[in-house]
# Entry
Amino acid sequence: MAADPLDDYIDAVGKALALPIEDAWRPAVKANLEVSLRLARLVDEFPLPDETEPASVFAA
Amino acid sequence: MSLQPDIAKSANSDDLSASEIARAVAGGKVSAAGVTEAALARIAKQDSVLNSFTDVTADRARARAKAIDAAVAAGQNPGPLAGVPFAVKNLFDVQGLSTRAGSKINRDLKPSSRDATLVERMEAAGAVLVGALNMGEYAYDFTGENVHDGPSRNPHDVTRMTGGSSGGSGAAVGGRLVPLALGSDTNGSIRVPASFCGIFGLKPTYGRLSRARSFPFVASFDHLGPFARNVADLAMAYDAMQGPDADDAACSTRAVEPVSARLAQDISGLRVAIAGGYFQKNVFPEAVEAVARVAKALGTTRTVEVPEAALARAAAYVISTTEGASLHLDRLRRRPNDFDPAVRDRLLAGAMVPAPLVDRAQKFRRWYRAQMLEIFRSVDVIIAPATPCVAPKLGQATFMLDGVELPVRANIGIHTQPISFIGLPVVAVPIPLQPMPIGVQIIAAPWREDIALRVAHALERMGVATAPRPKDF
# Structure
């Protein structure tokens, strides 16, 4: 079976952010990340005008 | 002076509401000291079962009560909450305590040098802090379970969850240990325990109540608010806590808008609608029944569709997990083994969500807010379930709905998240179904807590919403 690219992604981001991820935690971390990415994808697919401001607007 | 006369005078304070206590203390009919001793006695007797308190501040409470009694004796106004015992979720700073926020790690923090703003305001109004309350770790929780302190237990059935993350607040008020408690609500953490424990909870408009000196979770969603056993008490606490605070960057500069005196105003002119679509899916019959009772009492059959509510919940989830991860990044590096493993693994995953997706979620949030504000041009109140089910069993991982097995934790907050996502004010009202109560959200436009509280008050007067007394507490 081919390696899941999400495993490589978890390794890379974990290293970039210096986050310790023990082997025993990996399945749960991956499962949670899959949920977050699935939900984020739903939002990503929703079309918004380029001019849309984020909810937080900086006030000088 | 003996304590005995005070205790004797307080013999019935177990059954008094906050407003009744305040009137009796101000009128010299009971002493604040006696009321405080009675509350401490209830906690000592009952909390070994409910596990709602993590700290009892008895010495402080006695000193505060003594000062209130002295003020009454001197003819001074002791405040609208004179002698009323209250407790706070343990993410509020309490002078002299480390703000543990449900965690093991934070117990190593220095004791707080000053109370949270809302604790200061409650005490300035005469209330008496009696302790800090159990909660889900770092507020990333809907169950009220805690691996470090044990679960808070539901007073209506101690084998069931309180809901979370303000689980101790739900248990302490639901179990009648204190008439008022404070909690926080990021995605539903006031409304969920209010629903499961059968009490009233107010999540005010985002920015209405100061969060200064409370431990955060998701800065752009975090709200603080009160729990009570009736609407008058809820409004009294809310009124006492309002007002600008430069110590919270998100706290509004709006003037105080007291509600207590307006609770009984006629609501017949208000336009009430039932949330449709998303809010009528994935619900157990108890939640359907509770919403139907409220709709009938308010005389409405009108339904409004909340556009893209599922996406609102999804975006709230994404923002929560990433802002939470940002908050805890260094703790995840240094002390990963000291977290609740379930919380740690969610936060580690949150740290890995790409930034553009979070920005998209925040942009969607503005779009969704505009849609909701448009709905509030023709509607004053939206009613929706607070939780899809009554309190699950402690430790329960899944439930069956329409023949499908669903995870409990992920689904408890599905109806609260799309509302707090844009900071709308909500009163969770308890509907006394048997054997377990369940809550309904009374949702109003931003800054219209008065409307939500007036409707809750009307439902209470009609006998539709009431905090049922648990048979064992």
